[in-house]
Design brief:
The chain is α+β, with helices and mostly antiparallel strands. The chain has eight helices and 14 strands.
């Protein structure tokens, strides 16, 4: 579990918003969930203040926080195929520096990487040289980041309850809940609470001493209707993308698994499991179009 809470501004009069004090409140709020207290990181600069809680994930190998001479970076949700995406961009990088390198590339030009990196992922990074801080979510907005803003305070978190550590009152928005009771989910940027909105998909926030700016780079249309591909090409590309994603995950987890919901199939929901020995032996190309098929070339997927 990772918990991110970022803010800028003085907050309510008399409220102590030092990172250490806020971190203590966050830990108190979430302490019933943890038998072992999570690792706590705090940051404070001209652009923002931040608390990041991280509980270890069993059999997970990749770090959620990395730092080098120029950049510190953290992942709220880890970009599973980041290393392959960087290699496709001409930037091969070792596992010990993936997050800082990826974040600098996203800062320089996010669109091509947003098309390549599979959701969900959520990243925060800051330049050691300029003090500027950035936030980037995935092209679907599948990593849910919630924004709060009033005339004294801006805040961002992936856990709504954490906002209480900043003295923010959580007030229900009745219209949102009426919509949810009809549809079964919150559409658009609705959260169910007043003054809280989900960060739009493919959004990059830039925070510095002067304020906050945001840009969005819509990539969903590229995924839904890729130019110049027939229906058969699209199906083959989807198949190869799944295989490539499985291959990307293998070094990150000591016990990877893959599950498919089944969607609208009339058959019972199928579950699939990856046979690690087959996947380890297989080395599919990162980019595939019109590839020949053959069971010997791919990891073997079995119904369970």
């Amino acid at each position: 579990m990772r918990l991110l809470l970022m803010w800028r501004g003085p907050g309510n009069p008399g409220e102590d918003l030092s990172p250490e004090r806020v971190a203590a409140r966050v830990q108190q709020l979430f302490s019933p969930l943890f038998a072992v207290p999570p690792c706590v990181r705090t940051r404070q600069g001209r652009a923002m203040s931040m608390v990041f809680l991280e509980a270890p994930v069993p059999r997970w190998n990749a770090p959620f926080f990395q730092e080098d001479r120029h950049t510190w970076a953290l992942a709220v949700d880890y970009p599973l195929n980041a290393q392959a995406a960087l290699a496709d961009q001409g930037t091969p990088i070792g596992t010990d520096a993936v997050l800082p390198a990826l974040c600098r590339q996203l800062e320089a030009g996010p669109r091509s990487l947003l098309r390549t990196i599979a959701p969900p992922f959520g990243l925060v990074w800051s330049s050691q040289d300029t003090g500027e801080t950035f936030v980037q979510n995935d092209g679907l907005g599948q990593t849910q980041l919630v924004e709060f803003q009033n005339d004294r305070l801006w805040a961002l978190t992936n856990k709504i309850v954490a906002l209480k550590a900043l003295g923010i009152s959580l007030e229900l928005e009745r219209d949102h809940w009426a919509v949810r009771s009809t549809l079964g989910w919150f559409p658009l940027d609705m959260t169910g609470y007043k003054r809280l909105r989900f960060l739009a998909p493919a959004t990059q926030l830039r925070l510095d001493s002067h304020g906050l700016t945001r840009t969005t780079h819509e990539v969903l249309s590229d995924w839904v209707r890729p130019a110049g591909l027939s229906q058969d090409d699209c199906l083959e590309l989807a198949r190869c993308s799944l295989i490539n994603q499985i291959t990307a995950v293998m070094p990150l987890s000591g016990c990877p698994s893959v599950g498919l919901s089944g969607g609208c199939l009339d058959a019972p929901r199928p579950g699939v499991r990856l046979l690690r020995s087959s996947a380890r032996a297989s080395r599919p190309p990162r980019r595939a179009r019109r590839l020949r098929t053959g069971e010997d070339r791919w990891p073997r997927l079995e119904r369970s």
